Amino acid sequence: MNISGRNYLFSAILVIIGAFLIGGCATEHRFVKKTAFKDANQIIIEFAGPVDETWAGNPSNYTVYEEPDPDIKLNIQDIRLSADRKTVTLSFADPLNQNQPHILTANNISSEGKSLGTAILNVRKVYLGYLFSILIGAMIINNFVFTKYLGLCVFFGTSQKKSTAVGMGITFTIVIVVSAMMSWFLYQFVLQPYRLDFLQIVVFIGLVSLSVQAVDTILRKVNPLLFKAFGVYLVLVIANCIIIAVPLILADNSYNAFESLMLALGAGLGFLIALFLMSSVRERLELANVPPTYRGLPIAFVVAGLFALAFLGFSGMSIF
Amino acid sequence: MPATTKTNFQLVSNGILNENPIFRLALSMCPAVGISTTVMNGIMLGIAVLFVQVFSSCTIAAIKNYIHPRIRIPTYTLTIATWVTVIDLVLAAYMPAAYKEMGIFVKLIVAFAIITMRLEIFACKNSVSSSFWDGIGMGLGFMFGMVALGFVRELLGMGTILGYDVLGVRPLLFFVLPAAGFFCVGIMMAMFNYMELVYNRKRRAKGI
Hints:
The structure holds two protein chains of two kinds.
Chain A: H1 3-24, E1 32-38, E2 42-47, H2 53-56, E3 62-66, E4 76-81, E5 87-92, E6 102-106, E7 110-111, E8 114-115, E9 119-123, H3 127-141, H4 152-157, H5 162-191, H6 200-222, H7 224-237, H8 242-253, H9 257-285, H10 297-312
Chain B: H1 8-18, H2 29-34, H3 39-63, H4 72-94, H5 96-102, H6 113-123, H7 128-158, E1 160-161, E2 164-165, H8 180-206
Helix pairs in contact in B: 1-7, 3-4, 3-6, 3-7, 4-5, 4-6, 6-7
């Protein structure tokens, strides 16, 4: 890697750390030190000083809702105050959707008999960890090939040899990151503000074709050696449904820029992993004595089924 | 390829048997694995694909003389995307339950290799009426594949057909699991291969 490359990497890390800091410090009241999710259905509030038991134990002092719908107030089941009276743990009747930021309002916080005013707090996951969980989720837990069954045509077409598989995987990852970021930008700043959502399919497929063409042209001029190695796979990328599925998922879930980047990267790397695993098995299958009716695609499907069963083991796992 | 000389009936049966999109051409496998858990899903997605295939085939066949050869692929893609948007909005408005069941796959019809392939090798060289019948054949072939898979998986997994209880028991819950889609498709493909093998052997025995 040359020096300018290192500079880029460094600034990218700085940006990510910045996002972490902005996301991590989400409390807006001087008396509240920290808010966080705990387990599936609990929220912890840490105060700077001890609060009064009578105030803390009264459920009507708290209102909690998910950021997108303020009308649906969540039911508080149980309130616990720690021994030093600084930490309040709220338990809810139902598990919380921790991917959404929650807004917690604490009315008239009272400490040592003094009222300290009302605090409106933002409860969200630790941001860097959340980004990482999106990446790992898209890559392994919700692997697009083995658990969502997308991109199978290209998957079976290019998994015969390891070298082909790796080339296809890398090309695909580059193209999907470029096209997903472009379509995210277009959706957030053009389609949504002008209420053109219904055009999303037409726009996304056009954008994907364009970005494939752009990567093709740029690679051909900038690095002919790389183009010689990966150029053939570029044509195939457009036939892969994952590349159109990711922008659609991004549009449905209203992710922000970093989250979109992570999802696209995870989808690409997940495809690479799937291709690599499959090609390793299929290289061995060449030597095996397969019944004539199963030769070629049918046995590949059965192998993919076994992989899918293995990946089922990851389902429901959550990181952070 | 010159303009086809096949009759309409041959065009339709070609799509269902000789060039069945799922079992013979092995294209558009994603929905065949992903949502073939019930017969109803197969029928719904089959109708959507039939609609898109027929209308885009007809559109391309009608305007084939005005398309510059160098931009034909983008033209196909945009045509398909337009018709997919139409069916997507119609299904979302009139059949919300079925639409939810099929999830993202309706929108993904736009990336199905089968439709682009038919436009490239058939519709851009033939008349509107033959393209219409070819589209019907391909759509029905896809629907047939989906329904066959859905039939096996629903019967073995839940013991029902179209939601009606047939067996009264659930023989193998495994088939409802998403991963079983891969096994079903693999085994069915092998069955198609086997039938072809036996058929060819018989023909050779007859000495034709």
